[in-house]
Write a structure and sequence with these properties.
alpha+beta, Thiol Ester Dehydrase, Chain A, two-stranded parallel sheet
Length: 286
């Protein structure tokens, strides 16, 4: 079945979540990031800035085939190709949040049909806590109708002088263990069998399970902020494009490319030099 252009504008049923300290700390451990403030239950516990991907996953799996027209099997072919998160304020462990999601765009690419979702999380007062633009590509799926999109306000991407071809400011190699996808799946509560089940991975056309894209992005954010000496609690925006898959038992190089004002730019390369994440961006409130 195809992805239908009539899906644009469809609101999913909202979900309510209350991420407790246990979930927030487990997410940080699954990244992994061992900075003490991420586990400080005796003081002010800082929530990792990419934590919103965890409750967003609950929204995605609860609405996989509605109303886009795809079967569950086709929906499982979706790969994460773009992420742009805007945090209006830091998250707080234990707070109640309502997460809403909308399909905001669909398109046609050589490899399949693309879909953009907008997530909006609000607190009990109705104030926005975060917004995310989440772009997926459904491999081998046709688009029924013409590409379409709704309009919504979104901050412009800053124009930065330093390009990805420039010599990086700093580089850190990170080793991806054979069990890292299992650990991240359980800690983040983001389970997709292509990351942990060899049979499911092969059925999806992969040679073996791979690391989650959000796990790679979270690890990159942790590394570039550490390289810069930046405060995780000050992060207000994270963005990046996903290009290549990360094999378990391999290594990635996280490269800090630029630091201009309140903005860091980065990319991630696999051990063959192929770009895993491009156009990486971290912005701060400082």
């Amino acid at each position: 079945m195809p992805l239908r252009s009539t899906a644009v504008g469809h609101p999913f049923d909202p979900i309510t979540v209350c991420p407790d300290a246990r979930w927030c700390m487990a997410f940080a451990a699954g990244v992994p990031d061992d900075r003490p403030e991420l586990y400080a239950t005796d003081a002010h516990l800082v929530v990792h800035p990419l934590f919103p991907v965890a409750p967003e996953w609950e929204q995605i799996v609860g609405n996989r085939s509605l109303p886009a027209g795809m079967t569950i099997d086709e929906a499982r072919r979706g790969i994460h190709v773009g992420h742009d998160l805007v945090l209006h304020r830091p998250l707080q462990a234990g707070e109640q949040l309502t997460v809403q999601a909308y399909i905001t765009a669909v398109g046609r690419r050589p490899a399949g049909a693309s879909q953009e979702m907008l997530f909006v999380a609000t607190d009990p007062s109705g104030d926005v806590v975060w917004r995310t633009r989440f772009t997926s590509l459904f491999l081998g799926v046709e688009l029924e109708g013409e590409p379409a999109a709704t309009t919504h306000d979104w901050p412009a991407t800053p124009l930065l002088a330093r390009a990805e071809t420039a010599e990086p400011i700093a580089v850190r190699r990170s080793h991806v263990g054979l069990l890292d996808a299992h650990v991240y799946s359980e800690c983040a509560r983001i389970w997709n069998p292509i990351h942990t089940d060899v049979v499911a991975a092969r059925a999806a056309g992969l040679p073996a399970p791979i690391l989650h894209g959000t796990a790679t992005l979270a690890r990159a954010v942790s590394i570039v902020t550490d390289l810069e000496g930046a405060v995780l609690g000050d992060v207000r925006r994270i963005a990046g494009r996903f290009g290549a898959m990360v094999a378990l038992g391999s290594a990635i190089d996280v490269r800090l490319l630029g630091s201009e004002g309140d903005t860091l730019t980065f990319d991630v390369l696999d051990q063959r030099g192929k770009r895993v994440i491009s156009n990486g961006l971290v912005q701060f409130s400082r």
